[in-house]
Amino acid sequence: MEVVMAESGMSVFATIGFGLFILLAAVGGAAVLTWFERRLLGIWQDRYGPNRLGPFGILQVAADMLKLLTKHDWIPPFADRMVFIFAPTAIVVAMMMGFTVVPFSPDLYIIDLNIGLLFFLAMTSLAVYSVLLGGLASNNKYALLGGLRSAAQMISYEVFMGLSLMGVVMLTGSFSMRDIVEAQRDMWNCIPQFLGLYVFLIAGIAESHRLPFDLPEAEHELTAGFHTEYGGMKFAMLMLGEYLGLILISCMMVTLFFGGWLGPWLPPVVWFVIKVFIVICFFILLRAAIPRPRYDQLMTLGWKFMLPLTLVNLLGTGVIVLWMEG
Amino acid sequence: MIEVLFYIAALIAVSATILALTRTNAAHALIYLIISLLAIAVIFFLLGAPFAAALEILIYAGAIMVLFVFVIMMLNLGKAGQERERQWLQGSHWIVPGVMAAVLFLELLVAVQPTTINVSSEVTPKVVGLTLFGPYVLAVEIAAMLLLAGLVGAYHLGRRFLVRKHDMRSTQVSHDEASEGVQS
């Protein structure tokens, strides 16, 4: 299926078909990831995780979906109805739009924008609204506090996320994702841009507000933060958005720092999927291994440590690029 | 095709802006403003300025508007705020701004000559950079100075809170006891 589309990669219908395929694959991947994450966390924490339904418990995904679908879709009477319904869609739409610029192989991509990287950053920045408006519309103090925290957290970490990628752009001389991958033929960006990778990794976790940086929804102090009032399919949408964000950030990390589809022997798409899988596992390992920092620690880490680090990285990269050009 | 898309985006931008002006609920108004900004980004994209379009979303819709929503959340106006807004938006208050806007609109109609939109020439990010740091480098420097001034100003305004926080840490215990005493 994929190969056929790759051969006719330029025609409009094939691109639309491939786009739909990517949408379905991303949603399916996010659904399986909920189970996979729990199993992997279980293994690393010396317990089983969901292992009852089907082989290795994989039918747990279907059971969870069934439960969420049949749940009462309740909107609190004190909530702002319109915004409350709109909020969960923002993150899903924004994250799915982000997938359009990911190059899966030399011929397998939806669109190759010359502002590809900026488009990705723009889409992730729009995902904030889901959390923010969800918190605001719930009209509940815990949700509001969660939303406020997330706004501050995501706005701050967006700055470092954008700046940490500018080193990669400098080395490539282009915002296009395919150019960035092609420029890594001799050496993956993770070696010359290790500072950028480090900052992007942390900013990526903070941006997709996953544990250890899930302070917007820190259970022990804010119940469930911004999605306290959400249930049923709306809650599922928020979760879907979060997992889509995780997959998107992993795809971006592979594309920008680990050579994208580049690799010997195997077909490019396979390399891409393998690398993304490893990065996702690493994200889950981080979740299992690191405790949650305090909120002020998170912000201090961002502004007093990450920002100078990215600026140093930017300066160093600039000097080296100029020096190489002579 | 592009013209049709342009007019759709323009229609959305104008109607979303009008709705943003007339909403009494501040959060709803901001959402319409965000939609209007996104529509303007689409227009930039259609006119062959993808870099400007990306920055429009990234900076205006993705950062500045988030701060606006942030402030709305901090204020938490609620029903009272809506009532006050409704009073402000009543009849007579529309006259002067309406006349001003109408004059501006007429001027715009006169000023804008019907030119064909040259979509074929796309402005790439590289060209934008070269122009910014070539002929317009002075403007970039001035903007940098302005931002620095803003940064220093923000630090100055926030500094007293830093000092107070530091004081509080040393007298934390006695302060807590005092406030508890007041409550009981």
List the helices and strands and how they pair.
The complex is a heterodimer of chains A (326) and B (184).
Chain A: H1 2-7, H2 12-44, H3 60-70, H4 81-98, H5 116-126, H6 128-137, H7 141-172, H8 177-182, H9 194-207, H10 219-222, H11 232-257, H12 268-289, H13 295-325
Helix pairs in contact in A: 2-11, 2-12, 3-11, 4-5, 4-6, 4-11, 6-7, 7-9, 7-13, 9-11, 11-12
Chain B: H1 2-22, H2 26-46, H3 50-75, H4 78-88, H5 95-111, H6 125-132, H7 137-170, H8 172-183
Helix pairs in contact in B: 1-2, 2-3
Protein model, in words:
By secondary structure, chain A is mainly α. Chain A has one domain (73-325). Chain A has helices spanning 2-7, 12-44, 60-70, 81-98, 116-126, 128-137, 141-172, 177-182, 194-207, 219-222, 232-257, 268-289, 295-325. The longest helix of chain A has 33 residues, at 12-44. Chain A is globular and about 65 Å long. Chain B has 184 residues and is an all-alpha fold. Chain B has two domains: 2-119, Four Helix Bundle (Hemerythrin (Met), subunit A); 136-184. Chain B contains eight helices and no strands. The longest helix of chain B is centred in the C-terminal third of the chain and has 34 residues, at 137-170. The chains are: A mainly alpha (326), B mainly alpha (184). The interface between A and B is medium-sized, with 32 and 27 residues.
